[in-house]
Here is the input.
Amino acid sequence: MEKPFLRLVAEDIQQRFGKDISDIAIVFNNKRPITYLKKHLVDVFGQAIWSPQFFTIQEFLSRSTEDVQASALTQFFYLFELHNALLIKEGREPELLEEFYPIAEKILSDFGQLDYDLVPVDQIYMELHDTTAIDLAFQHFTPEQQEFIRQFWQSFSMKGHTAVQQRFLSLWKKLPVLYKELKEKLKSEKQTNHPTIYRELAEGKAQHQQFHKDFKQILFVGFNALNRAEAKLFKQWQDEGLALFYFDADAHYLDDKMQEAGLFIRRNLEQTGLINALGDVPNIIGNRNTEVHLYQSLGKNSEAKLLHDVLEKQLTEEQYGQESAAVLLADESLLVPLLQSLPQMDINITTGYPLIQSPIFGLFDLWMETQQLISHQKKEKIPYQLLETFISHPLSKVSPQQKQSIQRESAEKQLFEIQVAEIDVSSSALPKFFKPLNHPSELIPTMVHLIDELLMTIASNGRIRQIESNLLIETKKVLNQLHLGFAHLGPLSISFQIGLIRKAIASINSAIEGDQLKGLQIMGLLESRCLNFDHVYILGANEGILPKTSSGATFLPNNLRKAYGLPVLENQDALSAYLFYRHFQFSHDIHVFYNGIVDESSTGEESRFIKQMEFETPLQFIKHTQQQPLLFPTQPEELIIPKKDEIWEQLYQTYIVRRKALSASAFTTYLQSPLQFFLKYVADIKEPPSISQEFEMNKLGTVIHECMEKLLTPLLDVKDFTPTQELKAALERVDQQVLQEIGIIYLTDFKTLDELNSLQRIMHKIATEYIKMYLQYDMDQYESIRIVELENDEDYFLDFPIEIQGKQETIKLYGIIDRVDEVIDRNGVRKLRIVDYKTGSDQVLFTNLDKVFAANTDNKALLQTLFYAYVYEQKSGLKGLEPHLYVARRMREDGTLFRNKSGSMTFDDFFLEDQKQVFVGFLREQLEELFNPEVPFKHNPDAVVYPSDPYTLFYRYSTEEKASEEA
Here is the structure.
């Protein structure tokens, strides 16, 4: 097996310097390899020695100055002040902070790139309308470079400029001025940044220009793409005999100039003139026939699930101590699904865990959205969804009791909006979450206080908890920097601050480091520089991701970048290729995963680097395709509840021993679905409270029934018939009565229609129209009316004999009598009626009686009305009660008396009396079946299942559903 790169470095250090290495500086691009090189040095020397000094390149070069590093936010605020000062000087309106933020990010990035590559700022920002001037201004440039500049300015050579070009040129003119003023501002504050340090060192202007001479030797390990400042310094220090360079490369891509992976190291060796301390590089890749496993997954997140299966087969606890393993994320957005899919094992995460993908960001975003409403817009109510999101959030830690109380009260009152002053989340880890701010200046201090409260509640143990703690601390740092910046800008609105906070914290991520030498290492490809692992698992190796097809935002157009040798997309490709190829120099077990599904974020193709290696090297690529399981349609196991043991005991005790009354709706529920009857009336499984965003027919029905009772109550005590024309007085009271009843049902005292929310307004409109239709129908059809019974839900209980297992028992029936009246129609015919109001899709028409008196009846309303009529007649002693159904939608066309569609059977006179007897026999038959232990509770496969049915989950997979909804 090939030796790891850092092992070769350690051996060369021992051979070259012996034990005298304490005054050597070893410099890396990042911190990660330091631990590994230390381990290899210990293994190579085999005894205690004085350690060399280790640095990252930025730490090392920062020794050249005493100025402190200015944070990115500090630089942004400086730039914002300088930019607006220039605008004011030009007589223009200053820009808003939030608007300038994304522009500032690009400007600062460009300034940094120009410093790293030592580009003359005044020259690159020259405004050249006459392209002939390019030949004079850039005589020292090659013809190719001049052509790039000419192509860029060609679009500006026309006489008039577009509005976009004018805005661009306006900013372009200011950029060299902003560059100089920013540098002066930083210097006046005794602050600096890394690009400035690089440039000043390369140009010989650093405070401590000779700082590197503090070391006997400087070893630069694993560098690849050098900027011009680094290249100049490295060559200079090599010429002074102070610098050594260890390049990690393979002859396969280094010697072949067509191989992009070797681009930068070739440039370092051939153009810059640096010397590789390890000598000639071997051709490992070109001579390896190692197996490489390539996995095509069915979706992005499926890559992590596939990896889980591979890891469980590949890695054991014993291997952790003997061999190294790493997951490399070409697509770093896979970190969260990866963490959720890993088998139980020790891991160490180097790549940043993004705040925006964590539950913490959701909580912060919710708080800012709430403050936008209650503190900026001064709203006294917030949407219920905001409160529901908070009490359901895992970090809010609202007690189950308080959560249930809030949900129950909100559901009962159907509160789509919540009074902020009435919100009580005192049991939460953040009890003041919904407290309005007194002043905009309190926004960031209050947010910092929220972070402190969260830090106190988060346990320090556990992988995810540690990540959350680190993210909170990083967020707190950014907020404190913002607060310092805001302090110099005067009063800022809450909305303004929130906009900038969202932008500033969106890029936060936190590296979670465990033991770098044990367990499974998780990192991005960039963090894997210099490191070698026995087992490598690369996730997200898709074309378009490896390499990326887009570069960072910039104001420096591509032609100018090419002219000045600044990084372009091709450079990014070369670096990605190198980071990928180098793992094939050492690892003996390589697994590469890519998403094979084509969608808006995926090409569905493996990276071209894989195809290149497959074609150009002896490596054996073994391809695995994730198989989509084929689900053949089979009849799923039906949910059947036998009537035995505790279930039979519950049924029998409830209705026969304790004599719980059986209602008409319970009876028709049994006819439509015995399983639903069990769930609802035996198991007593209740629907959880919820806030409905859809219209609720049951509440509409309640409002209508209550209103009809109150409107007709004045007639209840009248012994004689009342002319129906007197119902005009009731018609005039309908609107106010409906408003009052809606207030009662939602536990709120409404005074005017303006206080109703949108759905309540709809309910008011429908209810008033229905009630007016009912009253108008009575006025049109009848001369006079006498109310006999009205909404009686107390007196109508009836013992009904049935046979249970050969023994006579009785079951108590229960009927709510909406209305019993006696009317005289326009022909002078007197009728005794029982009236039921319906607001759904019920109708008086039916197809035939066989389908009515049957399981899964096709006219539930008819059976329920006959049920009420039977109970009433038995209790009152009255006979000849005629069942009527008031369905507002069809009253004018179909009337209110039940009949078949052909009109040959109408439920009145002798036919009605015959069918009442048929109903009693049918009722007894069905109830005896209900209490037959041999007939289990099961769902009727022909029953209509409505989308709003709360019990759908219990039988949705066991029957063929017929989805329909009552309108």
